[in-house]
Structures are given as C-alpha cells and as structure tokens.
Amino acid sequence: MTAATDIGVLLVNLGTPDAPEPEAVRRYLAEFLSDRRVVEIPPLLWQPILRGLVLTTRPRQSAHAYRQVWTDQGSPLAAITQAQADALQSALGPDIRIAYAMRYGAPAIGPAIDRLAGAGCDRILVAPLYPQYCGATTASVVDAVTAHLASLRRQPALRFLPPYAGDPAYIAALKVSVEAGLAALDFVPDVLLASFHGMPERTRRLGDPYHDQCQTTARLLAEALGRLVEVAFQSRFGRAKWLEPATAARLDALGRAGKSVAVFAPGFAADCLETLEELAIRGEAQFTDAGGRHFAYLPCLNDGPPGMALLETLVRRELAGWR
Ligand SMILES: C=CC1=C(C)c2cc3[nH]c(cc4nc(cc5[nH]c(cc1n2)c(C)c5CCC(=O)O)C(CCC(=O)O)=C4C)c(C)c3C=C
Ligand SMILES: [Fe+2]
Ligand SMILES: [Fe+2]
C-alpha cells in the first residue's frame, strides 16, 4: 500500500445514448426505464409494456430528436460532462483525481469507481449533478454506487455531495448566468420561465422533496434577481398525472397572450436533449406558433465560469477534513 492517501471525485450525470440511432437509443432507454427508481410500476406489469410498446416505438422518435442536437463531440450531455470533469481537474490540481460517470450507458459507474480505486483513491466523493434531490435521479445514483461497493472486497471510503437546491453558491451562479443571458438579448422578456424536469405527481404525495426543492431554487433566484421567476415542469412521460404547470402548456398560453419569454433550465447541470431539443427547438416553435413575440433559451451552467466556480466550491466543501 502506498503511503499517500489519494482522493477521487466522481461526477455523475444521467447518461445518454452512444449514437443518435434507434438501436443505441433503445439500449439506453431499456436500461434507464428498467430502473425501479424511475418507473415505479411493478416489473411484472411494466416490463411487458416497456418491451412490447415503449421500446418498439420511442427509440425511433427519440433518435430523431437526438440527431437534431448531436455534436462533433457526441451527445451534448456527454461532451459537457466530460468538459466539466476536465475543468474541475485543472481547478483542483493533480492531488485530487477527477472522473465522471453516467447512471445509464457509458462510462458506467462501477468501472469508474474501480478505475479510481485502482489508481490509489481510497476516498471517493461521489457528486450526483442534480441540484434538486429526486428519487429517480439522486437516489438512483446512490443505489448504483452502493450496489457496486457491495461487490468489492476492498471498499474505498465514500462521501456523497448533498443536493444543492438552496445553496447560496448555486443561486449566485444561476444569477450571474441568467443575467448574462438576459443582457445578450435584443428584447426584454415579459416572463422568465424556469423549466424543471417533471416527475409523477404521486412521488410528491409520497414525500419526494423534488417539487419543493425546485420551488426553493426559483424563489431564491427570484429574490437574487429582483424579478419574478415562473416555474414549470417539462418532459412528461406516460399517462399518469405529472407535476404542474407543464412547460408546454405555459409556453402555449404565453404565446397566445402575445408575450415575450426567456426560458432556462436550472435543474440541469448540463444542456442535453431535454433542454436543447425540447425547450430551445420544440418549445420555441410551440411558442411562436401560438402567437408569441420573442423567445430565448438561456443555456445551463455547463462548463462556463459560473458553473465551474460552483462545482469547485461544492466539491472543496465536501472534501474538507479529507485533505
Ligand atoms: C434533471 C432531473 C431529471 C429527472 C427528475 C428526470 C426524471 C424522469 N425522466 C424520465 C424519462 C426520460 N428522461 C429522459 C431524458 C433525460 N432526463 C434527464 C433528467 C431527469 N429526468 C436528462 C438529463 C435527460 C437527457 C438525456 C440526454 O441524453 O440528453 C428520457 C430520454 C429521452 C427521451 O426519449 O425522451 C426519458 C425517456 C422519467 C420517466 C422520469 C421520472 C419518473
Ligand atoms: Fe428524464
Ligand atoms: Fe423529453
């Protein structure tokens, strides 16, 4: 054993297909939508629906959507997460080893932990890149990490970055980023719309704090900006009732009222299909078709300076006592 104790940081985001092709999307969706944290219908009921219906229709539609946002570096979510890991490595220096993993698809969590441990990291901080806690996202990452550790004879010590929905460093980063985005527009939006990923309404009744944490983020940001921030929830999936109001319904209503709007997605650490295609492409079309005046989509924190300053602050705080 080496004398020095190495520290690893594992950034984790949701994951994305390897290619904007139906077969790759099918593999990705099969893993994602089989996670019982994501779809809470008993598997005996759900798996036949997933295999017989969802995975025979959705991959083609989703692949079409992915193709519209795909870049030379691959899926935006993968490219941005890698850029965040690289920038964090530069900021924290060689004494701390930064890696990233995806909850679904590649690079997978288990092998990423093995690589950190193999490189001598016997302390690992896992940072799920979700500001608002949600069973489907945060808890699913914790499940996957701890399941992997359950298979190890020699386990590293673990820490998890807590959700940061109300953290002053997060609110400050959003404020700087949103103000810069607004300053670059050639119009003044009537409405600033914060669009968070939706969840089944039932999860809120059962005690998931996600909805309340989204509201907390929006309220604190509104106070910091000194202006109203409207909240809506996007990306409805399936037939159940989801959190409301729905982003699509709000964009339609604001469009019909002839308003101008700036939309942003504070719950996503990195731009991805759900922001670039659903908001920036489809959202804009929906809004202008309904009669809306001006539309802007403001990017996520990504690997820009406010976002990286935030990640550095959060990670350094969690590493206190380990260094
Ligand atoms: C940021 C928080 C997210 C929550 C909460 C969340 C819940 C959730 N999502 C689905 C179904 C789908 N989500 C999809 C993509 C997707 N979702 C998130 C984040 C959250 N999801 C991200 C970052 C992405 C983008 C991935 C990318 O490749 O860019 C998809 C796949 C795309 C599609 O086919 O539409 C599905 C499906 C459910 C059911 C759910 C909660 C129950
Ligand atoms: Fe999602
Ligand atoms: Fe979507």
From TrEMBL:
Main location: cytoplasm
InterPro entries attached to this UniProt entry: Ferrochelatase, Ferrochelatase_AS, Ferrochelatase_C, Ferrochelatase_N
Subcellular location(s) per record: Cytoplasm
Record carries keyword Metal-binding: yes
Catalytic class of the enzyme: lyase
MF-aspect GO terms: ferrochelatase activity; metal ion binding
Source domain of life: Bacteria
Enzyme Commission number(s): 4.98.1.1
Residues given in the record as Fe(2+) binding sites: 197, 274
Keyword terms of this UniProt record: Cytoplasm, Heme biosynthesis, Iron, Lyase, Metal-binding, Porphyrin biosynthesis
Annotated Gene Ontology cellular component terms: cytoplasm
Reaction(s) this enzyme catalyzes, per UniProt: Fe-coproporphyrin III + 2 H(+) = coproporphyrin III + Fe(2+); heme b + 2 H(+) = protoporphyrin IX + Fe(2+)
GO biological process: heme biosynthetic process
Pathway the protein acts in: Porphyrin-containing compound metabolism; protoheme biosynthesis; protoheme from protoporphyrin-IX: step 1/1
Family: Belongs to the ferrochelatase family.
Role of this protein: Catalyzes the ferrous insertion into protoporphyrin IX.
Protein name (record): Ferrochelatase
Organism of origin: Sphingopyxis panaciterrulae
Designated gene of the protein: hemH
